[in-house]
Amino acid sequence: MSVPMGVLDPESGIFYGVCWIVVIVRLLSRRLHRGSWKLLQADDYLILVAMATDTVLITIMHEVAKTSSNLIPPGDDVSKYSEAEIHTRIYGSKLVLVVEQMQLITIWLVKACLLIMYNRMTMVLPQHKIVIWTAVYVGISFVVMEVLYLGVWCRPFNQYWAVPPQSKQCSAATNHLITNAVFNITSDLIIILIPMPLLFKVRLPKKTKCILFFIFCIGAFTIVAAALNKYYSFTHPFGTEWTIWYLRESYTAILCANLPLTYPLIQRIFKLRNWNSNTYTGTTPEDRSTTRHHQQSSSQHTRVYWPEPAAVAAEPPHIPRGFRDIFRRTEIYYECD
């Protein structure tokens, strides 16, 4: 599967560098917000693990793009392969196995980072249950895919690098790609939709809306990239397109998970205003009246900070069930320090 590297080399290098810059800014911002490196939270460490697996992914993907594997084109006579070519294809097949694992781990680590952030955001909101169930779905999907890929679809396991393999599932991995596409795209859609009700309930400056819209566009592009890398894996298995879209998916996922948490440092450098104000506008006269009442008596409402942890100030004795009732007692603040 030897292919030209013209697109893969410059694009992957640029995106990889941008991802590291954004991750570093995110960590510095989190340090400013938390007050100490020791107070960084689980998602801050997980994103570093994701960058490590993504580094392995990009490094090995460049080798995969110029090395043949046990995915043998129709019409090729394997009996005519030289010993050297067989060894090359065995080596390339093992690299494909590592690439698949690194891409899977990277993407699911990014999902975990986003869900941890959502957990902090929605601690006192109705969406919190959705976040918990989404996390369960994401965790189960990862385990199911790994069990199927490593123990079911291709048996025995060494057939993944056999030349030729006994089954197409050991070279084309059709079943795995379908399973991955279903779990990956559905979980991405849920994750990108979770904050939507919250954002529709708040009133933000146009600049802030544009920033958030841009981040959601990156998230949407990640889903498109996930779909396209599977499309090209099925329709052009011997081409370069699937390798390019694998990397694009991982890069955009990392950017989407980190950009919302970069604001404190950017605010400090450029002397920007906080993302705050009385941002919630009730949908009914009763809601607006209740909101004004709680603005006048700050000791009786909850403040939720985006995208930082939910902080409860003088929590009311009882928060009624129902989305609207909780928002009557909730004031959304967009600030990070």
From TrEMBL:
What name is this protein filed under?
Rhodopsin domain-containing protein
Q: Where are the transmembrane segments?
A: 12-29, 101-118, 130-152, 212-232, 244-266
Q: Where does the record place it?
A: Membrane
Q: Which GO terms describe its cellular component?
A: membrane
Domain of life, per UniProt, equals Eukaryota
A Pfam family in this protein?
Answer: Fung_rhodopsin
The alphabetized UniProt keywords are: Membrane, Transmembrane, Transmembrane helix
Region (Disordered) location: 281-303
- Entry's PANTHER family? PTH11-LIKE INTEGRAL MEMBRANE PROTEIN (AFU_ORTHOLOGUE AFUA_5G11245), UBID FAMILY DECARBOXYLASE
Domain (Rhodopsin): give its ranges.
Answer: 26-268
Query: Where the protein is mainly located, per its record?
Result: membrane
Q: What is the lineage of its organism?
A: Eukaryota, Fungi, Dikarya, Ascomycota, Pezizomycotina
Name the species this protein comes from: Pyrenophora tritici-repentis (strain Pt-1C-BFP) (Wheat tan spot fungus)
Q: Per the similarity annotation, which family is this? A: Belongs to the SAT4 family.
Membrane topology (UniProt): Multi-pass membrane protein
